[in-house]
Amino acid sequence: MRLAFVVLMPVFLAACGGSGLPRGEANFPQSRDDRERQTYGSILGDEGLTLFGGRDRARATQGQGIGVNTYLWRASLDTIGFMPLTSADPFGGVIITDWYSAPDSPSERFKVTLYVLDQDLRADGIRAAVFRQTRDGAGNWADSVVDPKTGPDIENAILTRARQIRLDAQSKK
Fold this sequence. Notes:
The chain has helices at 2-16, 32-40, 54-61, 70-79, 150-171; strands at 85-89, 94-97, 108-116, 126-135, 141-144. The chain is of the alpha+beta class and 173 residues long. The protein has 2 domains: 28-63, no CATH class; 70-171, 2-Layer Sandwich (Alpha-D-Glucose-1,6-Bisphosphate, Chain A, domain 4). α4 packs across α5 (150-171). The longest helix has 22 residues, at 150-171. This is DUF3576 domain-containing protein. It comes from Lacibacterium aquatile.
């Protein structure tokens, strides 16, 4: 029994020992690559497991604070800025307005949902869904037909504004 105690005691004491770092210092990874190596390094190798280019894609978009084209996003907000916003998700690229009635036509109201679809400034990078309601004789709101040109007109206005913002940004460089 004493022999087992004498043999095992150094093992237990070694397990309780420090990591060799001075007291008060922690060994935190300094960069994302260090964290990934620390997380994935042992079983999956230094690079870890990457499916569908996930880590490479994340590195490519790192530093961008927004998931969609910045010019389209800003132009969208500028274009529909007169309408109250219900939701704006810059990572998903969706902007939803609340119902808006123009002061000169209080019996009609509109709602717009904008989808910024791409990270590039392209003509097909924005979609607008427009909803319209009119007030009936009893004062209730009822869905009404929207002119089919309204959505594309809003999209074109956004694209025009996005080009202006891009040109302004380039001229400042």
